[in-house]
Write a structure and sequence with these properties.
Blueprint: H1 4-15, H2 19-26, E1 34-39, E2 56-62, E3 68-74, H3 82-97, E4 100-106, H4 110-117, E5 120-122, E6 130-132, E7 135-137, H5 148-153, H6 155-164, H7 171-182, H8 187-201, H9 205-215, H10 224-244, H11 251-259, H12 263-273
Parallel strand pairs: 3-4, 4-7
Antiparallel strand pairs: 1-2, 2-3, 5-6
Helix pairs in contact: 1-6, 1-8, 6-7, 6-8, 7-9, 8-9, 10-11, 10-12
């Protein structure tokens, strides 16, 4: 099953295609910012029963350079079969679209990033017929943005920084700077970036740090994660009231309360918890 961090690492380029030119600049390769972008199908399956899918695929048009195909792959760990697949992707894309393809691999740990960046050659030792040289973005080369003013200059790059540095000891400072920068950004930008950051952190401890930062101003973060945070907070309130009143809450009822994601239902349960004589009574509809 595809993980949330995997989705965030490549989807951010769909949401903000111009991010590629900034990432490539950080990586020491200059690509002009796109003037137009076309999202292409990611299914690279041939007519034979072999399914091949790239994570994100886009055609980028620029003013200064020829168009290019950008294939973005999110890589969570070393996979010895991947380089052959990546070579196939690039060859297939060039054969199909007749446009030069570029592969960008995004990682969250240095070891995987360094492995992915290692050139892979196809052909005998004396003559390499094909060489794979992907661009690789990871914690080893993405900027560590711990200043809100710096994050404000490029919110998408700051978000990718948080995602690729998810396991960094300074992740708390990175998230604080990103949160502070987002408070002053238009809502059209904040919603997707808040969600992508949450996805990118996955189940790491930093995910709870991000939730706490988001919870500081829920009226600002109008997104699914704010709904989830409100539900979590209200569930804790329901349990707190019941426990303070000395009402026993068994594991089944506790699970039902904590797993509820509807803030309005939880608000009703909270109101009944004040007068209920048993935990089961809070579920009684009026």
């Amino acid at each position: 099953m595809v993980s949330a961090p995997h989705e965030a690492m490549h989807r951010i380029f769909q949401e903000y295609p111009g991010l590629f030119s900034r990432v490539s600049e950080v990586l020491g390769v200059n690509f002009s910012p796109p003037t137009s972008v076309t999202i292409l199908p990611t299914d690279l399956t041939e007519s034979r029963p072999v399914e091949r899918r790239v994570d994100t695929l886009m055609r980028l048009e620029t003013e200064n350079d020829e168009p290019l195909l950008l294939a973005v792959e999110a890589q969570g760990k070393k996979d010895l079969d991947k380089p052959a697949s990546w070579m196939y992707y690039l060859s297939y894309l060039y054969a199909k679209y007749k446009v030069q393809p570029v592969l960008l691999v995004v990682c969250q740990d240095r070891a995987t990033a360094e492995w992915a960046a290692h050139p892979v050659h196809i052909g005998p030792r004396q003559w390499s017929s094909l060489t794979l040289r992907p661009l690789v973005a990871g914690p080893h080369n993405m900027p560590l943005i711990t200043n809100a003013a710096e994050a404000r200059k490029d919110l998408a790059l700051a978000t990718l920084s948080a995602i690729t540095h998810a396991d960094d000891p300074d992740i708390g400072a990175i998230l604080k700077s990103l949160s502070a920068a987002l408070r002053e950004a238009p809502e059209s930008l904040t919603g997707p970036l808040v969600e992508l950051t949450a996805q990118g952190l996955g189940k790491r401890p930093a995910a709870q740090q991000w939730r706490n930062l988001v919870a500081v101003d829920l009226s600002f973060y109008k997104s699914p994660i704010s709904q989830e945070i409100r539900a979590q907070s209200r569930a804790e309130d329901v349990l707190f009231v019941l426990e303070q009143r000395g009402i026993e809450v068994d594991e089944e009822i506790r699970a039902r309360i904590t797993e509820c994601q509807d803030p309005e239902i939880l608000l009703g349960w909270l109101a009944r918890a004040i007068t209920a004589s048993s935990a089961e009574e809070i579920f009684t509809t009026e």
